Amino acid sequence: MKRMIYLLVFAFALTVPCLSQPIPKFSQYPASVQRPRVTAINFKTNPDARSFRTRLSEGLRNGVNFAGHYALVGWGCGTGCISGAIVDTRTGKVYWPEQFNAFGVLYTDGNYAYPPVEYKKNSRLLVIHGIPGEKDDDAPAKPSGSYYYEWKNNRLRQVRFVAKPME
Predict the structure, then answer these.
(1) Measured in Å, how far apart are the chain's first and last C-alpha atoms?
(2) 0.85 cut: is pTM over it?
(3) How many CB atoms lie within 10 A of CB 61?
(4) Are 45 and 88 in contact, with CB atoms under 8 Å apart?
(5) What confidence tens digit (pLDDT) does each residue in 95-141 have?
């Protein structure tokens, strides 16, 4: 019995710091803003980009809007659905984070997430409100809420999740 109590106390002690984590702020993930260097998407190294040529090229023309030297570009993929990519404005390379693979902007309670995505050009922090997408359609659905990601080494790394309570 004592062993069980010790295990419960230990498990609780490990989870309390996770529950009390503050909401990440854009200022905690700084990025120095640079001027774009390329004027076109590199379609040779990004064959998938051809399918979204117009939106990606338009996003690149609009300039840096994320993490110092990237252009975050999005487009609709149906009701309550957004998809997108991240373009490196220094090289023209396109990144396809799995979280942008048709993510839902509807919470599980049926309300729309607004804004569905938050980001700044001088920060590596990206926030997805709703349910981030996955490349595997058979994966179990993630809970809805606010997902906080850091853009690091050309990948999104989740740093926090805050569930949206049902209304």
Answers:
(1) 40
(2) no
(3) 11
(4) no
(5) 999 999 888 877 767 788 888 999 999 999 999 998 898 766 666 77
CB of 75 closer than 8 Å to CB of 52 = yes
> In the structure encoding, which two tokens stand for residue 141, read together?
């659905």
Report angle CA 29, 31, 37 to the nearest 5 degrees. Answer: 150
Which helix (DSSP H) or strand (DSSP E) does residue 86 occupy?
strand 81-88
- Closest listed residue to residue 133, CA positions, set 107, 97, 109: 97
Structural domain boundaries enclosing 44: 33-163
Could you read off the pLDDT of 48-59 as tens digits, one per residue? 899 999 999 999
Element (H, E) at 101: none
Whether 10 maps to a domain, the answer reads no
Which residue in this structure is represented by tokens 């729309």?
Answer: 112
Domain assignment present for residue 101? The answer is yes
Q: How many domains does the chain have?
A: 1
